[in-house]
Amino acid sequence: MLNNLEEDKLKLKEILNKVVEESLVFFGELDSLPAAKINDTLNYDTHLPIEGTGTIHVLERFLSIHAKQLSGSAGPRYLGFVTGGATPASIAGDWLVSVFDQNVTSIEDSAAGLLELETISMLRELFKLPSSFSGTFVSGATMANFVGLAQARQWAAHKHGIDISQQGMYHLPPVKVISGAPHSSIYKALSMLGMGRKNLHLIPCLPDREAVDIEKLRNFLEENKHTPCIVVANAGTVNTVDYDDLETIGQLQQDYSFWLHIDAAFGGFAACSEQFQHLVKGMESADSITIDAHKWLNVPYDSAMQFTKHQNLQVEVFQNNAAYLGNAIEHPEFVHLTPENSRRFRALPVWFTLHAYGRLGCKQIVERNVEMAQAFTKKITQSSHFKLLAPTRLNVVCFTVVHKDEGVASFEEIKQFLDKLTEDGRVFMTPTIYHGTPAIRAAFSNWRTSAADVNIIWEALCNVYNRI
Any alpha helices (H) in 52-134, and if so which ranges? Predict the structure, then answer.
């Protein structure tokens, strides 16, 4: 009697055809699926089977029980966080990642590594970065920020005559990290790097902005002129997609010694559009850059890129010391460039996307999402139920709920409103606080979102408002 593995091998075509069939059902229903699901209880069978039942039976079990509890986050009205969908080209590439199952640690045993280098080169061109930047794929913006700040820490330590990768941090003075409105992943990266969340110095932002006050930044650098600092600049904040003056910050490097890390997780895609590329002017002055692919490029999770001008420092930090992995200094393979030794073939879905849609396709996604955000903003400004809290610069609308007595909602009331909106099923949004005011973020990041979706979103918001 055949065991399950051998039987599945013989049924591979049937299995894959069934997956394709169910995938088409999912995409056909995507527009009508609830944008998010609230699962109050976990009703799972946690017992490990002794023999197993084979893939066809497992697929049927998944579809009948668990698939029904998954959200429509890949759809056009999931506006939480900054979540892209997955384009057809990226799905094709992502499926093939699993089929070919390449461990992209080097360029020596397959073409996968060379394809990653080719993809990074195309991305450099997309973001208008000079060839002085090298790049590698990582799992997301958090890991890209970690890789960039790890290099920055190594740079700062060298200024003190210390090689952290060899000697550790025990004799290193606290490294000053400064930013105006850092993303939460910056704090997380500092914690993982042993630099500490509390050692991030917040520089005041401009009035009613999330962009750092350049003069106050200059004053801080002047006061710490003889101390190596790390400046974390924003190219698109999560609440209002605000941008630091990257060009002017870059020019400050002529007078002060600091590492410039730019968090451009989704805001870097402004470079795709002539209409918005002025926002990232000066990004090329960075020492390291974070950009996500699973946000505005609309490829499947997980996928992001880190770019650097200092690959030598990157190798110092992440070099793998196994003798059989070659010379990391002269020929740094991917295994020497990121925390991962084993690496998924993340470049392939991006390669498919860039070749399938080109620069104009990326531009179209960005400009269309911005157009939808502006259409939604117009509805907000014309309503007495909601209040816009900041200008809509790109694809994120920051607003709040207004009571019938004209007072704004509390944070708890915002959460209750959003819970009811999630229960409605037509749209999903996330809460935030903007300059002390409890608020809601609507992030338009999905290639599918249309004007018809904006009307559905607005109808859902008004229906929920009228029920509270």
Answer: 55-61, 88-100, 112-126
Q: Is 431 exposed, middle or buried (0-12, 13-18, 19+ CB in 10 A)?
A: middle
Shortest CA distance to 298 belongs to which of 399, 395, 232, 210? 395
Q: Domains, the chain, ranges and CATH?
A: 91-353 (3.40.640.10)
Extended beta strands in 340-468, E state:
386-388, 396-401, 430-434, 437-443
- Which residues 6+ apart lie within 8 Å of 422 measured at CB? 34, 35, 36, 37, 38, 428
CB of 189 closer than 8 Å to CB of 149: yes
Q: Which of 204, 154, 150, 153 is nearest to 176 (CA)?
A: 153
Beta strands at 288-292 and 176-179: parallel, antiparallel or unpaired: unpaired
Task: Report the amino acid identity of residue 421.
Answer: L
> Over the stretch 261-280, which tens digit does the pLDDT of each residue have?
999 999 999 999 999 999 99
Separation between Cα atoms, residue 86 and residue 295, nearest integer Å? 9
Cα separation, 338 vs 357, in Å, equals 29
pTM of the model: 0.96
The span from the CA of 293 to the CA of 266, in Å, is 8
Let me know how long the chain is.
468
Residue 455 CA to residue 459 CA, distance in Å, equals 6
d(CA 122, CA 128): 10
C-alpha distance from residue 316 to each of 188, 328, 332, 340 (Å): 22, 9, 10, 15
Distance (Å, rounded) from C-alpha 332 to C-alpha 7?
Answer: 42
pLDDT tens profile 301-315? 999 999 999 999 999
Residue 69 DSSP one-character state: G
pLDDT tens readout for residues 243-257: 999 999 999 999 999
**DSSP state letter for 388:** E
